[in-house]
Amino acid sequence: MSNPTTIKKESLFSLQFTLLCVSSLLFFSSFNMIVPDLYDYLDNMGGGEYKGLIIALFTVTAGLSRPFSGKLSDTIGRIPVMVLGVAVCVIMGLLYPVVSSVWSLLLLRFFHGFSTGFKPTGTSAFIADIVPAHRRGEAMGYFGLFGSTGMALGPSIGPQITAAYNIDVTFYCSAIIAFLSIAILLGMKETLKEKESFKFSLLKIRKDEVLEPRVFNPSITLLLCTFSFGATITLAPDMAINLGFPEGQKGIFFTLYVVCSLLARVTAGKISDKKGRVIVLKYAVVFLFASNIVLAYADSQAVFIIGSCIFGFAAGMNSPTIYAWTIDLSLDHARGKGIATMYIALEVGIGLGAFIAGYIYSNEIDNLRFAFFTCAVLTVLAFLFLNYGLGYGKRLVQKYGS
Fold first, then answer.
1. pLDDT (tens digit, 9 = 90+) per residue, 152-186?
2. What's the structural domain count of the chain?
3. pTM (two decimals)
């Protein structure tokens, strides 16, 4: 296995880092802009009871592809893995207008998941290669600003395009924005020095190449926290409409969540670099618990807005800290594998959250409260794990770590 070359620069904002941030902004905008309208699209096809699968199927494929993207990122390079992920977004955006049945739409969601299975894995490994080790949390915070901005812009702009034209135009815009993300990547310089040429044997994954035991602790923490995210992105559009927000603003949760996460990301990343990852995550989990309780009792637009903002602060503290913690624990020659393991946990958490919350909700507004209570229980487990369960992860490293 080859070793990545670390570009030793004290400054975070090199040309490479800036280009990667812009590419990710476009990437996250592209596939998130269609999400709020997909629920109505599925409803109109007669598949309203399958709303939980819109996110769940997407994350299943993303999770399944992580071991492959991690291995390829450590062998053929970071950039080819990123390009492949974004290319899937382009193709899917062009195919959505063609489908005409519930099952064909769900099948597209399944394949669309390959995009996030590849792009973020290569991206995170690339960033780890080019930023100073002592500023990883800060770097992930700044990087998260761009990704989160894309996550806010997409769901905010998508419904407006659909309202002004139709959902097919939104799908095509998604494909165009994804293509622009690829164009930026093609101008970047690969950071994996000793690359291998692609061969199909690289797609054969051994048991020890699936998960990296060294990153067990951040991965379990992330899984328990992202359950809430999967649930909320599934429920929030219907919840917003039920509380009286206009159809064009049903993505308001995404906007509020991302704006507030932006305010927390860089500060939380810097604090985690100085004070440690775990202490920041404990506070993040407390905020996440509070947001779920507030959303469970949201009976007005004002309470919904407050819950969305608290959720955003929690996510802004959580994401850069988890990512930096994962990189801290990963071996240089297996950085892609460590990051892929973390993302598998993320996809499992989001997928389970979306599926279970969708099942509890079952298109009945009165069931929303029970879904958020379930999320709150998972955040309590995350807090307990951070306080009492980290020793188990250390024992796994001693037993299985390379």
1. 788 878 988 998 999 999 999 999 999 999 898 77
2. 1
3. 0.76
